[in-house]
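Q: Here's a chain of 257 amino acids. Please give me its 3D structure as C-alpha cells.
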Amino acid sequence: MRTLVIIPTYNESENIGSIVGRVRASVPEAEVLVVDDGSPDGTGELADALAATDANVHVMHRSGKEGLGAAYRAGMTWGLDAGFGAIVEMDADGSHQPEQLPSLLAALRGVDRPGADVVLGSRWVEGGGVVNWPARRRAISRGGSAYSRIALGLPVKDVTGGYRAFTAEALRALQYDRTESQGYCFQIDMTRRAYDAGLSIVEVPITFVERERGASKMGGGIVVEAMLRVTLWGVTGLPRRFRKRTPAPTAEPVARA
C-alpha cells in the first residue's frame, strides 16, 4: 500500500526540515507532500530544497493562507490522483511524532488485527496522552472532543485530533472533497463523515507533544467555527441518528402453502 504523508505548512521554517527528516527515517517507504500556503518565512523554499535531494518528497505551493481543511483537501486530491493507497495527516510542528506512524499504518493495514478504513491517533485512549500542555489547554481539548462526541453520536474518544491515516477507498467513500470546514473543525467533519459512511474506525494511542518552535495556528475563530458547525450538525442529524439506533421491527414469518 503506497503511503503519502500530507504535511500542511504556514510559517514552519523552523520545523519543516526536522519533521520531514523524521518521517523519512521512521517510514522510509512513505512519500511526503508538503502543502505550503505561501508562507512568508520561506517554508516553501526550504521544502523545495528537501524535494530537490529526495525523490520521495513533494511540494505543493498554494497562493495564500486558506486554512487547514483546504490544504488537506488539495493534498488528498493530489494523493488519490497519484494512486496512493494510504494517506496520512500530520502537523508540521512536531506535535505528531513520526516515530509513532508505524503503529497507525499497522492498524490501517491489519498487521495485528483486521485492517481499518480510518485510524485515529488518539490522545484520550489508554496509553495516549499529551506533553507540555497546561491544565486549561488539556481541559479545552478534552471538552471539545466530549462535546463533539455527544452532539454527533460518535463512538470515538478523540474526535478533534489531527494525526490520522485513511485508505484511499475510505476517503472517497466519506466524500472528503465535500467538506467545507477550514480550521480544526475539518477533523471533526471527517470523523463524522467516516462514521456516517459505515467505515471501520480504530483509535491508536499517541503522545501529543506541544510545539517547541514557532507559533500555534489555533485561534478563537477556529474554536467558534467548530462550536457552531458541531451544534448545527448535531441538531440536523438527530432524526437520522434516532432511526439508526431504533431496531427494525421483526418481520412476521411468511406462511407457506
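Q: Can you summarize the key feature?
A: Residues 113 and 122 are 18 Å apart (CA to CA).
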